[in-house]
Each structure stands twice: as structure tokens, then as C-alpha cells.
Amino acid sequence: MNVGRPVPRAGTGAQESYAPELLYATFNQDYGCFAIGTQTGFRIFNSDPYKEKMRREFKDGGIGMVAMLYRSNYLAFVGGGRNPRFPPNKVMLWDDASSKIIAELEFRSDVLNVQLQRDRIVVVLRNKCIVCSLEAKPRHLHAFETADNDRGAMAISGGSESGIL
Fold first, then answer.
1. Sheet holding 128-133, edge to edge
2. Using alpha carbons only, what angle is made at residue 22 by residues 20 and 28, rounded to the nearest 5 degrees?
3. With contact defined as beta carbons under 8 Å apart, do 22 and 38 qualify?
4. How far apart are CA 78 and CA 20, in angstroms?
5. Up-side HSE of residue 26: CA atoms within 13 Å toward CB?
6. At CB < 8 A and 24+ separation, what contacts does 15-22 make?
7. Tens digits of per-residue pLDDT, 99-139?
8. pLDDT one-digit tens code per residue, 139-148
9. pLDDT of 11-63, one tens digit each?
10. pLDDT band at residue 165 using 50, 70 and 90 as cut-offs
11. What span, in angstroms and rounded, lies between the C-alpha atoms of 97 and 78?
12. Quick check: 51 and 42 in contact, CB under 8 A?
């Protein structure tokens, strides 16, 4: 869910008064957790019972999009906010156990959505959906031309045997 258009706080009109620093929110594949991207990093929450599981703050920028791989330590990031940590045309694969980027995918246009499956990374651009392998050196597997998709709408089935995009 892209929450990139913040709502002004009541009674104020200044740009600086926008609330909160939330840029993006999404659930993992089994809805047991959700992740948010903020102006300064990301946070992971348990859904039930509701509890913050972890948070990472970066000094050098925001995370405009975050995708979780179930409850593993692997996440996908795209930079965002006032000062993006990463370019908007790159997907960065993050291993939280080692707190570092383990792979990156670069595209010719801005990434509008990204989702992870056990063995796949699915990236949505304005007129294309790209499927790559989820490994240390991701391989391009498929590319599908689409109609204009300015909001990056995408859904993937949760089945492990076959996927529907």
C-alpha cells in the first residue's frame, strides 16, 4: 500500500506539518507481520498480537517501499521520501541478519512496486512487470508488458507450487 501522500495535520497548512513520516506499508505473505517504510528507515510489526518487532533507522535517507519474505531476514527496499536512501529505479535486497545489501536490481524507470516470493522477486514498472530469481545474483526470468500502471498495482498468489501474477 503506497501511503506517499501524507495528510496534513488539522489546523495547519505548512508543508513541514505533514504527519506521520510513513511512506509505505505492506503485509508479508501470511499477514502475520507488516512492514512500513519511513523517511528515516523501516519498521517491522507483528500483526496479532500487535507489537513492533524491529526498527532500523538510517542517517542517510528514507525507504519508500519495503517488501518482506515471509518472516525471514530478507527484505526488498526501494528508496523514497524527501531524501531517498536508494535511487527510485533500484530494488535493493537486504539481509537483516548481516545488516547489509546482498544484491541489487537496476531498471531504466522508477520501481512502482516490489514483492518477494520464496524463489522470485516481482518488480512493477509503469508499463512492465519483471520477474527475477531470488538468489545472490538475481537472474531475469520473465518480462510482461502491461497497460499503464501508474500506481504499481500487483497481486501474487501465495501457492508454493505455482504462482499467479
1. 113-116, 120-124, 128-133, 140-145
2. 145
3. yes
4. 19
5. 27
6. 21/62, 21/81
7. 899 999 999 999 999 999 888 999 999 999 999 999 889 99
8. 999 999 999 9
9. 444 444 443 589 999 999 888 999 999 999 999 999 999 999 989 988 888 99
10. low
11. 19
12. no
Residue 158's pLDDT is 67
Rounded mean pLDDT, 57-79: 91
CA separation for the pair 75, 92 (Å, rounded): 8
- The three-state DSSP-derived secondary structure of the chain is CECCCCEECCCCCCHHHEECCEEEEEECCCCCEEEEEECCEEEEEECCCCEEEEEEECCCCEEEEEEECCCCCEEEEEEECCCECCCCCEEEEEECCCCEEEEEEECCCCCCEEEECCCEEEEECCCEEEEEECCCCCCEEEEEECCCCCCCCCCCCCCCCCCCC
Cα Rg of the chain (Å, integer): 16
Model confidence, pTM: 0.80
CA angle 19, 21, 22 (to 5 degrees): 105
